[in-house]
Amino acid sequence: MIRDITLGQYYPAESFLHSMDPRSKIVLTFTFILSLFLAKGAPGYGVAFLFLVLAIRASKVPPRFMLKGLKAVFMIILLTVFINLFLTPGGAVLFQWGVFKVTRTGLETAVFMALRLIFLIVGSSILTLTTSPISLTDGIEALLKPWEKVKVPAHEIAMMMTIALRFIPILLEETDKIMKAQMARGADFESGGLVKKAQSLIPLLVPLFISSFRRADDLALAMEARCYRGGEGRTRMKRLSYTRVDVAAALVVAAYLLALGLLARWL
Amino acid sequence: MSIEIRNLHFTYGEGTPFRKEALRNVNLEIRTGEFIGLMGHTGSGKSTLIQQVNGLLKPTAGEIRIHGKDIHSKGASLKDIRQEVGLVFQYPEHQLFEMSVYKDVAFGPTNMGLSKDEIHSRVVDALDRVGLGEDMQEASPFELSGGQKRRVAIAGVLAMRPKILILDEPTAGLDPKGRDEILGEIGRIHGKGDMTVILVSHSMEDIANHVERIIVMDKGEVRMDGPPKQVFQEVEHLEAMGLGVPQVTYLAKALEAKGCGLEGTVTTVEEAMAAIRSLLGPPGPAKGGGIHD
Amino acid sequence: MEKMIVGEGLVFEYHQHNDAGEVEHIHRAIDGLDLEVRKGQFIAILGHNGSGKSTLAKHINALLVPTEGWMRVKGMDTREEGNVWKIRQHAGMVFQNPDNQIIATIVEEDVAFGPENLGVEPEEIRRRVDQSLDAVEMGEYATHSPNKLSGGQKQRVAIAGVLAMRPSCIIFDEPTAMLDPSGRKEVLDTALQLNRNEGITVILITHYMDEAIHADRVIVMDQGKIAFQGTPKEVFSRTEEMKAIGLDVPQVTEIAGRLKREGYDFPVDLLTIEEMVGAICRLK
Description:
heterotrimer; A: 267 residues; mainly alpha; two-stranded antiparallel ribbon; 10 helices; 2 strands; 68% helix; C: 284 residues; alpha/beta; Rossmann fold; 6-stranded mixed beta sheet; 4-stranded antiparallel beta sheet; 10 strands; 38% helix; 25% strand
């Protein structure tokens, strides 16, 4: 049931990408995402595709896990395709049916937009699949640290992420339990119209919120008891450090950007 | 209401890497009006089994018959089954959600589509059965003590007038007094009428004091099934499954090893008292030694 | 012996406010209580739900400060703000719900949380984390997710998290209430072992009387006061008083007490099966 939802789906393995520092992985992933907006035409997307294939190979994660991420946003991709397909003017008309008109530009934009979205999702899945939630959080905290001077709450953001990640599975399990308990009392979460469905959620949501508040109280107390008083004066057991792997990765990404740039100028 | 379970198998997450066999070839027959203790180590499958009985989980193979009717057959309604089989989950107070005790207990009967008068009489009756008076009806369930909250939750299931009542560790987290009170109420509920009661518990003493028959589960299978006196004789077998026997049963075993065994099988304090009296004969003048109070 | 914890004339009141912000109801959770715990002792505090035992526990760790009276941990007054973090480092606390006290998504990261808060050097944290996990026999789970562990294992991780702060005293606030029998045994054995082998002062709050049998001293609380205290033998032989305040005694202690009243020559302070067997065989 609800427990099947997997979040922060880290895939443990020993690979080139797994051994990278989370900070470089985050920065390089963002670079890749930005590069997708530079890519032009089939050759540009071809280079991006090749780069992704290389990255997937270097991650040792079975490709079907990447596709899992796509399944969740399939409808959004489909919607983008339709909007672009029918609403982009210009170019030769390829097909017409009533008010719906498919033009050549429309078709191209639709295909490239879909590819861009797919590449973007696969690219970010590679990051989350090869980086454990905790080191991802560490990476974000470290990257945001310099911004603390301008009042960016780097430590707080990271702590919130850690706690959210820790409690999502617990709350999912709890949801499942409360749902079953209410179903045992004759609650019906499936049938009925929208209003009835929303109403039927009250017996689920009220206990869930109450329990979340109780857990939050307990956790705050436990953190205080262990001397937690915010980020100041705190040390970390694991220090992040860049290695040769990160340098190599940066060079590969640079080469990819160069190829993309050259293609854009050349075409 | 009788329960018949035949060749029941259940596997979680079939076809995924998280596949876990929770029940293996379970066969059971529970007669109307029995008071059953269900024991087993965490992960032994007992929680899965009780969820099968009221149709919250669907068997991978095998069948469950409630009063002769297969609960997953075409004509059966799971909603009806859940009215017949009342299930009180562990920490049931965590499912309370209404503004008043009355409304929360009325949730089940309201879902059954009963008339207002019928709901009212059931709510009052259910609260009475768990020892909560009329003055509690308008209280917010969230302002009650832990033991009271749990009673309200149990009343919420009783108000559906189930023929079979299953309670998953109803005394978890309660102090000894709260525990005795809840167990006493469950005993009285069973005593009235012909309700079948299944009590899941980790406490050997509680089981020994209340139930007529014990079912022991381990690794998804039923390993033992019989009256407490019979089941608690198998100390080594139970310990191998991470369970134990009441302290007085251990005492009887230790006395036997010393050559002054007690008569019969001892599982409760009363039985132990009687057996020791008959072993020692009537109390004689003090022989000295020991600490006197 | 050195005094670890001293409290005198402790009173703690919870104030319940109404919608207008006025005090509507005052609840005295602790009502005039003296406490003294010496270094290396194993103290069990028994009491029914609402007897004030958890409130008392939170005073030892400076999570609460007394409304009246004072509490000192290793000579440090809990009412002084400057002492708070030092007190919390010295008096660690393990709570009831194993899920709600683990912060990180990896066992060793969670154990590191305390020393990280104290600003300990990374190499030293690593050392402490490994030692603490070994001490609770959870070393092999260092890189696991806490979600997959059993209740008893989670509590042991929580204990390791406290140990990594190098405390001199650990307060266990009903650590076994939500566990199954094997989990309860794991946690109790760990607490006993830390007390016996590492010399850590242990205060165990529970309502399972069988967990109190091993204590040097048992304190029985009722209505925010100490009802009575003494060695386990002294406390449990008061069967009637224990039952009157909603607590239990071991089955053999109960039987001995009742047979004694019937005229049999039984010692009333026996706690274990062996003692009971001895008493019966002597009379036979």
